[in-house]
Amino acid sequence: MESEGDEDTHQPPKWSRPTKQAQFSSTSVKDSFLTIPVLPEELITEILLRLPVEPLSKFRQDFQRTFVLRHKTATSYRELEARKSRVRDLEKVYMDMAMQKELQKSGRKCKLREEELVNPTTKPVYKWRQERKR
Fold first, then answer.
1. Rounded distance, CA 43 to CA 101, Å?
2. For 84-133, what is each residue's pLDDT tens digit?
3. Polar residues compositional bias: what residue ranges (predicted)?
4. Cα torsion through 118, 120, 124, 127, rounded to 10
């Protein structure tokens, strides 16, 4: 003695999206171009509680890796700059030593006049007479 209306109730329900919208009181902050909704604290807390923990920990690990990479990059640039400055200093020392070696050789040396200097320095610059090739 079942009626036709009862037969419809025994079928599994069809899945559909709820048409009712949640009733949250929210306000919005209006900028010149954007409208940003300001959500209530209860909704924000609910959203944060539903977030899985794994992506947040991965984000933290990625942030730490990025920090370490930036630190290593800055350190390597500092080391590179220190090496370059040492090379410049060694080149100056080498040039001074080469000049002293040339000055110790026998032969007549004459100083350049001030107008012949391209880059005047505190140390005198010497020129040698060209020797004839044999």
1. 83
2. 999 888 888 888 887 787 777 777 666 655 555 444 455 555 555 666 66
3. 18-29
4. 0
Kindly tell me the burial class for residue 107, based on how many C-beta atoms sit within 10 Å of its own C-beta (0-12, 13-18, 19 or more): exposed
Chain centroid to CA 92: 34
Q: What is the pLDDT of residues 15-30, one digit of tens each?
A: 555 554 545 454 555 5
Find out whether 111 and 125 touch, Cβ atoms under 8 Å: yes
Question: For residue 28, what is the enclosing H or E element?
Answer: strand 27-30
What are 133's two structure tokens?
Answer: 């090739």
Q: How far apart are CA 70 and CA 114, in angstroms?
A: 50
Q: What span, in angstroms and rounded, lies between the C-alpha atoms of 58 and 77?
A: 28
Residue 39, burial from CB neighbour count under 10 angstroms (0-12, 13-18, 19+):
middle
